[in-house]
Predict the structure.
Amino acid sequence: MAEITANGQNNGPAAGQPTLVLQKIYVKDVSFEAPNAPQIFQEIGEITEAPQVQLNLTQRATGLGNDLYEVVLSLTLTCTINERTAYLAEVHQAGLFGIAGFTEADHAGIIGSYCPNLLFPYARQIISGLVQEGGFPPFLLQPINFEALYAEQQRRVAGGEPHTLNS
């Protein structure tokens, strides 16, 4: 645990204590496409089948040295109406995390579960805003259980399957 002095200064971690510090959350990349606009807006009133929404979720972590890691959570939301793409919204939400003093298993769990769980609300808000500002009905992504996804990823790795975090 980090030691905080009376004047609010952080004197760094206490000897031998694990530390986890969120240094920054930021948008690394964002895009929105409505490839069939404006025709798709006319079709919305004539929908013969429910819109199909597909979410692709990935994450990656990059070590930057000095126990600093960039974790990027990428969400791509694709909506099709009558087999035509209505919109595609994508965000790469990133964070800088200082992670030190944890066991290898705990460190991997922090990167694979805790960090994306912290980044998700920011990415969800951006996706929601992009969809609505693109002229489509509001869309709210449901919560994602990153702990379960990480556990499934670990199970697959143990079974010899490739390790990617996908939903």
About this structure: The longest strand covers residues 84-100.
